Amino acid sequence: MTAAEAATNAEAATPAADAASVAPAPGATPPRNPLVSRAAAELVGTALLVAIVVGSGIQAADLTDDVGLQLLANSTATVFGLGILILLLGPVSGAHFNPVVTLAEWWTARRGGAGVTPREVAVYVPAQITGAIAGAILADAMFGEPLVKWSTHDRSAGHLLLGEVVATTGLILLIFGLARAGRLQYAPVAVASYIGAAYWFTSSTSFANPAVTIGRAFTDTFAGIAPGSVAGFVAMQVVGAVVGLALVALIFMPGRSAE
């Protein structure tokens, strides 16, 4: 069963009065709003997500020299911001804000269920990347930083790349595992909480998102990543997505009825 099928089944089992209150979330196929609306939601949502990550990083670095407190402030703002964005925009586009989530849903749909089409992928992914870049520029503008200044924060070490595999694997396992379990209504809290935790338990501080990774290369601030490190991070995020989907298939394997 795909993420989209799980969401559909969950709706079928919910009384009509309650169904409208369950907002689609990452990995779920939302009602078919116009594609332009969905693309706008993905662009704006990803832009605001990156603005939150970069802006809170700049603010934290201005307020304290303690790197631990900087990371705490950065992760806390991201948790609250991401949860709100998923809650707000989930009913419109599914609130992917992340190319690997979009591609993972396309893959599960390709395996036999409903989900995003190749045409939708071709619209969602550029919207997410454009939004991420715009979000970084917006954050820089708000804090009087150069609008575009390539980051000098090198993140190419092997242990950081491993951290990205782990972070992305966990994210995909969480989103599509919730879908398989029929619990996507918890995604705003669950996804935001996971990303907040992964800030601290992964060596890479959990980018887990190719669009966000690209966007953060445009700012030479606390949350930045050097352009030379982007390709490695994106490659490991794709690997993590593949591993995450494999784990979903293994862990949430359909049970057999007793004979």
Task: Map the helices and strands.
Elements: H1 3-12, H2 16-19, H3 35-63, H4 67-93, H5 99-110, H6 118-142, H7 158-180, H8 187-201, H9 210-216, H10 227-251
Helix pairs in contact: 1-7, 3-4, 3-6, 3-9, 4-8, 5-6, 6-9, 7-8, 7-10
Q: Could you list some keywords that capture this structure?
A:
259 residues; mainly alpha; globular
Total strand segments: 0
Calculate the terminal CA-CA distance, rounded to whole Å. Answer: 22 Å
Structural class: mainly alpha
| Rg, nearest Å | 18 Å
Average pLDDT figure = 89
Q: Count of DSSP helices?
A: 10
Strand content: under 5%
Q: Sheet with the most strands?
A: none
Summarize the helix and strand pattern as letters: HHHHHHHHHH
Low-confidence runs (pLDDT<50, min 5 residues)?
Answer: 1-22
Instruction: Name the shape in a single word.
Output: globular
Counting copies of identical and different chains, the oligomeric state is single chain
Helix content: 55-70%
